[in-house]
Amino acid sequence: SFDMVQLNDLTKKAGINLGANGSGYVDNYLVLHLFLKNNNKINTLFLQVDIYSLNSKNSFSNAFHTYQFLPYWRDSLIRKGLETFLNKKELFIWNYAPPIRYFKYNKYFSPKEIVRRFQLRHSYNSPFDKTFGGPSNDSKGVHEQQDNFIVKSSQKRDFDELDIKYLNKIIAICKENNIKVIAYKAPELFTRQQSILNYKELNDQIEYLLSNHNIPYIKPDTSIETTDGYFTNPTHLSENGRKAFTPFFAEKIISIGK
Q1: What Rg value do the Cα atoms of the chain yield, rounded?
Q2: Are strands 231-233 and 236-237 parallel, antiparallel or unpaired?
Q3: How far is CA 78 from the centre of its chain?
Q4: Using CA atoms, how far apart are residues 81 and 66, in angstroms rounded to an integer?
Q5: Could you tell me if 23 and 159 are in contact, meaning their C-beta atoms sit under 8 angstroms apart?
Q6: How far apart (Å, rounded) are the C-alpha atoms in residues 112 and 93?
Q7: Is this prediction's pTM over 0.85?
Q8: What is the mean pLDDT for each group of 10 consecutive residues in the chain (258 residues)?
Q9: To 5 degrees, how large is the angle CA 8–CA 226–CA 2?
């Protein structure tokens, strides 16, 4: 949602981004737990709270990045978070045969991939091979292409109890570590909002939940959400969108801090 360099310049703060793309609150909580466990310190946490992050399983393609947490298996909080996304068979095998944990998620050095490359005699026929799994020049600029913004259907949404539970855990761990939480809603195209039949009801619930914890809630200006050119798709800002939203967000942060 932000241009981090611009945000730091405008607020005179040193900010970092701890979030992974499309991650839910279980992922967010475990990242924050490890970050603080490694003796890192922050004064304020800016936390995205919206109808999508509160139903991450149905909103994001990969709401929990299991493979990122496998090296921390012995940490009880990490393992408890992992258990939600693993079946009993995986839990049993991974507990007693630790190396097997890494085969499922290893895309370059998995046995299947090694055999495939051996058969090809190391001929680099794909961008994946050329970059060892990193971004290729072929994909440059893809994220700035605009999708079709026509919303063809209406729907109702709801919240996931697991996301609510871990949102509260994030708030709790911040209180324990004297970290101020400021929540925000990322911009989304107005036509997208209109397609969700209970949109206002859900957002009222979010505001009520946050007010119970005395957490400020920053919502984007309507001029951003009604401008097609600020979006690459209905829920993601383009570069121009980030440049428009960042000063607005910085001004709100400064105002809250006064």
Answers
A1: 21
A2: antiparallel
A3: 17
A4: 9
A5: no
A6: 20
A7: no
A8: 88 86 92 96 95 92 88 92 89 84 71 69 50 43 43 79 97 97 95 91 96 96 92 91 94 87
A9: 15
